[in-house]
Amino acid sequence: MNKGKQATLFQSWGQKKKDVQTDNKGSSDVIDLCEGLDEDDDQLLAEAMERSLHDYSDDGGHTANDGRQTDNDGHEGTSDVCNISIGAESFPVSTQGLTQTNVPPGFDRVAGKLWIYPTNYSVREYQYNIVGKALLKNTMVTLPTGLGKTFIAAVVMYNFYQWYPQGKVVFMAPTKPLVAQQIEACYNIMGVPQEDTAEMTGTMAPTERRKVWLEKRVFFLTPQVIMNDLSRGTCPAVDVRCLVIDEAHKATGNHAYCQVVRELIKYTSEFRILALSATPGGDIKAVQQVLANLLISHIEIRTEESPDIKPYSHERKVDKIVVPLGDELTSVKKKYVQILDVTINKLKRHGVIYNRDTTSFSKFLILKAREDFRQNPPPNLQRNNYGMVEGDFALALSLYHGFELLQLHGSRSLFNYLDGILHGDKGYGRTKTELLRNHDFNELMDLLREKFAPPDCRPSQSSKKPLVTGHPKMEKLEQVVLDHFNTFNSGDGETRVMIFSQYRDSVSEITNILKQHHPLVKVMSFIGQSSAGKSTKGFTQKEQLKVMKDFREGGYNTLVSTCVGEEGLDIGDVDLIVCFDAHKSPIRLVQRMGRTGRKREGRIVMLVTEGKEEQDTAGRLVAKCDQNLDWAIRNCKKEDSY
After folding, report:
1. Alpha helix positions (H), 283-359
2. Domain Helicase ATP-binding, which positions (predicted)?
3. Quick one: pLDDT at residue 10?
4. Could you give the CA distance from residue 624 to residue 107 in angstroms, rounded to a whole number?
C-alpha cells in the first residue's frame, strides 16, 4: 500500500471528531502494513482497506483513543501471505502519557494494566494473537467457519467488561437463534456473571427494555432492537464500550448494523468495535463498504492455508453432480414456455424489450427492461398504453420467477407458486385474470394439480397416491443421503447430514422424501420465523432452538434447512453437506460449505441442473472450494442475483 495513505479508527468513517490523546504506548497501537504480501494473494481485503482509508488521508490528526492498557506488545503484522494482519500505518500522534485527565471515561486503571485470556480451553496461537490486536483497534476478524470467532468475541467482551465496571458491552447478531446461541457460548467460555447478562428481543416491552439497559451490563440482541432503543433514547449510548458485530458482511448500504454504528458515534467515540465474518464480501466494493461502515482500522485474516490454522482445519471434498432435467420436466418446461411466449410477445410488440428467445430472458433482464421503459419509453407508444405495458411487465416477472422455480426446484414448487397466485391473497388480480384466460396455463395447472394437489383438492379421490417428486434432483439427493448413512453404518461412529435449499417448498418436499427412510434417516426441517406470504408456517424461536439442540444431541441425524441455517449457528459436527441449489451468492455458498469439515474430513455435494444452473459462475467456481474456501474473498465477481 502507499506509504502516504494513513488513517486511524474514525478517519475511515469520515466523521470529523475532536482530537483525543492516545495512551503512553504511542505508535505501538498501530502497526505497519504487510509490505511482504504476495501481490496475487488476498488483494481484495488489502485493496479494500486501502480504498477505505484513501479518501481521508489528508484530514490531519483526527485520532481515536485506543488507550486500553494491556501487557500486549503490539507486534507488527506477519508477512506470511496466508496469515495476515492489516492495519492503518503509523500515524503522527501525541506521545503524551495516559493521565488522569485523558483516561477514557469509566476506565479502571488497575484492571486495565492487563488483559485476561482463558486457559480452560486449549490455547490456539491464532486466537491469542487476534484477541491481542482486537483489544487495541477496531478489528475485522475473518476466519474460516468453525474456527472460533465466537471464542475471540467472548474474550474481548470479557476484558472490556473488566476494564469498564460501569460500561455496557453489546453483542449484535442478525437473527434471534444466533443471539440466543451466543449467550450460552460466551458464558461457557469466559463466565460473565449471568446476573449482568441480558437477551433483548423485540417482544420485550420498551419500558422493560429501558429497565434492563440500566440494570445489566452485557447485552445480546439483534441490531433492530438496539436501533429502536437508540431512537427512543432508552439505550445509554454514552456507556457503550464494546460493540461486537456477528456476520459483519451484512453491514452494507443502510443495513441495521450501519444504522447502529452511525447512531452510536453521535454520542461517543470511546467504544471498541469487533466485526466477525467468514466472508467479508464478494468483491472489493462490498468489502470496502463494510470496513467503512463499521469504522474498521485493522483486519485479521486467516485462510485454511495459514500455518497457525492448518492444525485445526480438515479437508473438504467437493463433488458437483449434474442432473439432467428429464423427459417429464422437459415437457412441463415446454408448455410453460408457451405461456411465457404470450406475455413476452406483447412486450416485444410494444418495443420495450429486445427481440430474443423467450428462454434467454430472466427476472433481472425483465426488471432492467422495465426500468429502461420507465426512464425512456418508446416514442411511438401512446401514453394510454403505459399502464398495459406495466401490467405485462409485472406478469412477466411473476412468470419468470416460476420459470426459475421449475428449472431449479421442480414442478411441485412451480405448482405451489402458481396455486398461490390463483388462490392466495397477495394482490395478483390482473395476473390471475390474464393467466386464467390462457388455455395452455389451464392445461398445465390441471396436469400439476392431478400430480401434486392434496387429496381433497383433486377431482378424483380414488386412493392415496405414493409420494411423487417434482425434480430429478430429489431422487439423486435421496440416493446420496442413503449411500452416506449406509457407508457410515457399516463402520463405527455416528454421522450427521445437512441439506440446504433456498425455498421452503423444496425443504418440505425433501423432508417428506427422507422421512420414508426412518429410522436410518431421522430428518427434520429448519426454517425461518416469518410466516407472512409463505405457504409454510415459520418456526418460532423456541422451535428453532429446540431443533438445533436435538440435532446436536442426536435426536435427528439430518437437517434440511433454508438460508437460516447458513450463518453461524452451532449445529454440531456435520460430515455431509448437500446443496440442493447452487446459490449465486459466493458468500452464501461459502457459509453453507463451512458447516462441515470442522472436526474431521467432510464432503460437500452440489446438485446442479443440466443447463443454466450448471453454467452459473457459482457452479463453476465451486471446484476450487476443496482447495481453499477463501476464493470468495479473492476472486468472485459481483453477479446479478435473485
Report:
1. 284-293, 327-349
2. 130-298
3. 33
4. 48
Q: Is 47 helix (H, G, I), strand (E, B) or coil?
A: helix
Q: Do the beta carbons of residue 628 and residue 590 sit within 8 Å?
A: no
In angstroms, the CA 336 to CA 334 distance is 5
pTM score of the predicted model:
0.63
d(CA 93, CA 339): 69
Which pLDDT does position 533 carry in this prediction? 54
- Find the angle CA(234)-CA(236)-CA(237) to the nearest 5 degrees: 115
Give the Cα separation of 8 and 615 in Å (integer): 44
Please check the confidence at residue 455 and state whether its pLDDT lies above 80. Answer: no
SS3 label, residue 221? strand
Q: Which three cell numbers stand for residue 160?
A: 472490556
CA distance 384 to 511: 50
DSSP 519-554: TTS-EEEE--S--TT-SSPPPPHHHHHHHHHHHHHT
In order of 444, 461, 466, the CA distances from 450 in angstroms are 10, 10, 13
Domains, the chain, with CATH or none: 111-313 (3.40.50.300), 327-455 (1.20.1320.20), 469-632 (3.40.50.300)
The percent of the chain in helix, strand and coil, each rounded to the nearest 5, is 45, 10, 45
- Give me the amino acid identity at 478: E
Give 334: exposed, middle or buried? Use CB within 10 Å, 0-12, 13-18, 19+: exposed
| Residue pointed to by grid coordinates 486449549 | 122
Pull the grid cell for residue 99.
493521565
Residue with cell 458437483: 320
Range 224-239 average pLDDT: 93
Q: Is the pLDDT of residue 38 over 50?
A: no
Q: C-alpha angle 119/124/127, rounded to 5°? A: 100
Mean pLDDT of the region 80-87: 53
* Residue labelled with grid coordinates 406483447: 346
Question: Is residue 629 within a helix (H) or strand (E), and if so which, with residue range?
Answer: none
Euclidean distance between CA atoms 289 and 427, whole angstroms: 36
CA 13 to chain centre: 23
Residue with cell 440466543: 180
The answer to whether 381 touches 471, Cβ cutoff 8 Å, is: no
